[in-house]
Design goal:
- This protein is an alpha+beta fold.
- The chain has a domain of 45 residues.
- It is built from 6 helices and 13 strands.
- The strands form 4 sheets. A 6-stranded antiparallel sheet has the order 6-3-2-1-7-8, with no helix packed on it.
- Strand 1 and strand 2 form a beta hairpin.
- This is Large ribosomal subunit protein uL24m.
- GO terms for molecular function: RNA binding; structural constituent of ribosome.
- Belongs to the universal ribosomal protein uL24 family.
- InterPro entries: KOW (IPR005824), Rib_uL2_dom2 (IPR014722), Ribosomal_uL24 (IPR003256), Ribosomal_uL24_C (IPR057264), Ribosomal_uL24_CS (IPR005825), Ribosomal_uL24_KOW (IPR041988), Translation_prot_SH3-like_sf (IPR008991).
């Protein structure tokens, strides 16, 4: 999977107020086809259930209380909290006709329809019968589901990843990185640049130092001469740049003479030259 796809899935999707949630994720193409921009749909009223009161999870065994598969038990494969829906493996199915084309007549496939949360009940592991549950705390402070009929704890199912791996039961192989090595801090941030860090690691000593420089509004003046320029030179650069900018605005294409400084010039000649340019 591309990194851009992972980031788009992780980003929070902003949907309109009248958005109708379904069995597809809001960022998928199927969901976008069902909710095109500008299409108004009737509001669906869903019974509010707090997250801490939700009692059915993926992997639970439940029994259907109504419908054509009433009395059958199955495993929960998907949970949609936005609509209070659950999908059971191989139950409450209907057939869809797909794949019809010019040279192919198509075929029927079985599709599992969602069930409302009020139409199912968790199965008590003690007698394999449906029961109401309630959240309670054990003496150790663990929050568990308890059957109201028998008082037995119904453990939460082990969560499997899409590839079938159970993180709690995984054992590291010879090519796996242990969590201790992963969490070990191997980099210490510092204010040094990359060049300085490389020089320090390789034992390179740099004794040279940068010469002083004077900056104007439009350009930077630096020198490697033993006698650095005076602030008057920086002032000249400011006036000289202003003169070139004004000439460009007037459309004067006459090139402006470029002048360089000699630190040995006298102060009076420099002042006279700056005043004449201005």
């Amino acid at each position: 999977m591309r990194l851009t796809a992972v980031l788009s899935m992780a980003a929070r999707v902003v949907v309109p107020k009248d958005y109708r949630y379904g069995t597809n994720r809001p960022w998928t193409a199927a969901a976008k086809r069902l909710n095109p921009p500008g299409k108004r749909r009737n509001k669906v009223f869903v019974e509010p259930i707090a997250n801490e009161d939700w009692s059915v999870f993926r992997g639970d065994t439940v029994e259907i209380l109504s419908g054509k598969d009433k009395g059958k038990q199955g495993k929960v494969t998907q949970v949609f909290r936005r609509r209070n829906w659950v999908i059971l493996e191989g139950l409450n199915t209907h057939y869809r006709y797909i794949g019809k084309s010019g040279d192919y007549r198509g075929t029927y496939i079985a599709s599992e329809a969602p069930l409302l949360l009020r139409d199912i009940r968790l199965v008590d592991p003690a007698d394999r019968k449906p029961t109401e549950v309630e959240w309670r705390f054990t003496e150790e402070g663990e929050r568990v589901r308890v059957s109201l009929r028998t008082g037995r704890i119904i453990p939460k199912p082990v969560v499997e990843r899409p590839d079938g791996i159970v993180p709690q039961q995984w054992k590291d192989g010879p090519k796996d990185t242990s969590p201790e090595d992963t969490l070990e801090k191997t980099y210490t941030p510092s204010l040094k640049t990359l060049e300085e860090e490389v020089m320090e690691k390789m034992g390179i000593q740099e004794n040279r130092r940068h010469q002083r420089s004077y900056c104007s509004l439009f350009r930077t003046c630096s020198t490697v001469q033993p006698n650095p320029p005076t602030p008057l030179h920086a002032l000249f650069f400011f006036f000289h740049s202003s003169k070139r900018t004004a000439a460009k605005r007037r459309g004067d294409l006459t090139p402006v003479t470029r002048c360089s400084f000699n630190p040995s010039e006298s102060l009076h000649s420099s002042v006279y030259f700056v005043i004449s340019l201005w």
